Each structure stands twice: as structure tokens, then as C-alpha cells.
Amino acid sequence: MEFRDLKQQYLSNKDAIDKAVTEVMKSGTYIGGKWVTQLEQRLADYTDVQYCISCANGTDALQLALMAWEIGPKDAVFVPDFTFFSTAEAVAQCGATPIFVDVNEKTFNMNYKSLEYAIEQVQKNSELIPKAIIAVDLFGLPAEYEYIKKIACRYGMKVLEDAAQGFGGRIEEKKAGSFGDIATTSFFPAKPLGCYGDGGAIFTNDEMIKERLCSLKVHGKGVDKYDNVRIGMNSRLDTIQAAILLEKLRIFKEYELMKVNEAAGWYYDILKGKVKVPEVPQGYYSSWAQYTVVLGEQVSRDAVQDYLGQKGIPTMIYYKKPLHRQKAFEACAQICDCPVTEMLCEKVLSLPIHPYMDYDMVELIADSLQRAMKR
Ligand SMILES: *Cc1c(COP(=O)(O)O)cnc(C)c1O
């Protein structure tokens, strides 16, 4: 059994994907070209955002967004303590200070009350200027933008939506990728919409920011890439990956997003009341990058993982360590109180989930988990 069955996904769509790749190979265009332009258009249409700018990966996307806002030393950027390293790495890469904010036990996403408290602490006790909030759509579920945006507005801050895991999610009819002043996503193979290598994209409705991003991702280009008006990066999406993504976006919309939600529904029906299962708040829709349960206090996670492993069921721990405990952030983890993140890091367990699971597979995993917890 695979944790996320990418090979099955390829085999189910082999003809369309092979054809797309071959067309690029035959065209002689390997960077840029019509595939990249068309993909950006389709992604902008899907998320209902004016501009989509593709780039090399989800980490660059975050960094480019912060660079477009000219965030740097003396600036504070608020990030959840419970997320993948990149979210805070991009902040540090710009020379700014990441401030770690605790998350909500139920949604795993940034707790807006902790956010407001952290902003006030920074204003009171440091020289840093609160500039931006990076809200992460963790495990596929959009963050609570209604509250986060109000807070951003009150303190004159920007909101960056890290939708690396959130593509395909929504709140009511509004899609992930449209919640921030800028939003970013990743097409790393195991993300909800993945390619067959690295890839990423940035979304915004702000034309000036769009122009700046297009420059920043190509060496800070001016009229062309040999005219350089600012220090940028080299961060492009490969043409082959764009062609693959055009096919995969179609499959994602037609099939995968629905199927992965069906699998999550099966888990929920079987496991509800037996273990803490993820709850999707009213009006929210998840794209299920992960299916993460929280084990009870008295259950040994190591023993559960071992037992499932012996049955051939792979599991993962997202995430083992609060970001503020990462050695890389030693210097900037001073203002931080994140008890929920600490608890989650001890007790979470992510189960296999992907669009190519059938009911029997979900049932086998769920039953084995219950047996493991009783031992
Ligand atoms: C995967 C991920 C990223 C980074 O994406 P890459 O394409 O791997 O650089 C950023 N933020 C979060 C929350 C992620 O899960």
C-alpha cells in the first residue's frame, strides 16, 4: 500500500500525460511557451483570481511574494508554528523575522486569537514592525480568513495565503488561492495538484504586484532579461511540467478532488468517536493533502505506527517538531507560546489518503488503526 499513490495516478491517466509530454518534446520549446501561458490562465480562471504567475516551486513562490512586498530586516511576519518549514524559511530568507503563532486544535490552522496576541507582543516588546501574516491552508483546509483579514486590516498588515497544501479547497464558493492579498501554491508531486517534479504558482488581483513578480522571477528583469532593474531570482516552471499540469488540472477538477473527499468521508464515518478525526467547519471544503488524526493521551504513537507498519500500512507524522523548536530558528523563537502545537506534534498521525483509494482500503486502514489503539 502507498501513502499517496502517485504511480496509480499516472497509470490511470497515462495516455493523456504521455501525449502532453511528447508534444512539448517535439515542439523544441522547453522553457516558457504556450503551455505555461495557458496553464496560468486556467489556474487564474479556476481560483477566480486575476493573475497567476507560475514559478519553480512553492518555497520560491512564498519568497517571491515577500520580495514583491519588499519585506526585509526589521519586519515581523507571523506564521503558524505548526506547518512545513518553508513557510517560515521564506521569511528568514528575506531577512525578516518569523513570529510563530499557535494553531487551533480542531482545524490545525492558525488561531486568530493567538495571532492578535502575538502581534501585540511584538509591538510592545520589540523593535520589529508587524508587516504580514502568512496563513497556511494546512492539510487542505483553508484557514479562517474572515478573522485573519480583519486582524490584518486593523494592524495595517498584508495577508499571504500559503495554499501549497490547500489547492482545491474553498470556503463557501470562494477558492483557496484567492484569500490572501497574494496566495501561493506548490505542485510538488504529493500536493493536492502535483506535477512530476517541482513547480509552484502565485496568485494576486494586484496588477502592480503581478508586474513586480514577473520581474522578480526572471532575474529582476526590466524590458527583458538582459535589462535588470532589481535583484531577483531564477524561478520558472518547466514547460513539460506545465503541459503535465494542464492535464492534471483537468483530472483534478473532473475526478480527483471529488474522490479524495469521498475517501475522507469514509474515514470520518468509520472513525468518528473512536479517535479524534479532522472536522471540516460548516461552509468549508478541504482538498485533503493529508488525513491527520490526533491520538488519545494514553495511546503510544510509536506502537500504533509499528503495528500499522507490520500490516503494510504506511503512516507519516506531519509534523514532529514545532517550527520554533527547529535549530534554524533558534535566534528568532523568543516570543512564542504554542502549547497546542506542542501537543499536536506529540499526538498527530497522518493516514494514507489519495483519490485512488476504494472503500475496502479505507476500511482496512481504519479497522487496523482501531485495533492498534486498543493494544
Ligand atoms: C510543500 C509546502 C511548501 C513548499 O513547497 P515546495 O514546492 O516543496 O517548495 C510550502 N508550504 C507548505 C505549507 C507546504 O506544505
Oligomer: single chain
Class based on secondary structure composition and strand pairing: alpha/beta
* Total number of strands: 12
- How do the SSEs run, as a string of H and E? HHHEHEHEHEHEEEEEHHEEHHEH
* Major sheet attributes: 7 strands, mixed
Helix percent band: 40-55%
Mean pLDDT: 97
Number of helical segments with 4 or more residues: 12
Radius of gyration: 21 Å
Question: Can you give me a brief rundown of this structure?
Answer:
The chain has 375 residues and is α/β, with parallel strands linked by helices.
Structural features, described:
There is one protein chain. By secondary structure, this protein is of the alpha/beta class. The chain has twelve helices and twelve strands. It has helices at residues 6-12, 14-27, 34-47, 58-68, 86-93, 112-125, 145-154, 207-216, 239-271, 301-310, 339-347, 359-374; strands at 51-55, 75-80, 97-101, 129-136, 158-162, 170-171, 174-175, 182-186, 200-204, 284-285, 291-294, 348-351. Strands 1-9-8-5-4-2-3 form a seven-stranded mixed beta sheet, with helices on both faces. Strands 7-6-10 form a three-stranded antiparallel beta sheet, with no helix packed on it. Helix 4 packs across helix 8 (207-216). The protein is globular and about 65 Å long. The mean pLDDT is 97. It binds pyridoxal-5'-phosphate. Pyridoxal-5'-phosphate is lined by residues 57-59, 83-84, 86-87, 136, 162, 164-165, 186, 188, 198, 200.
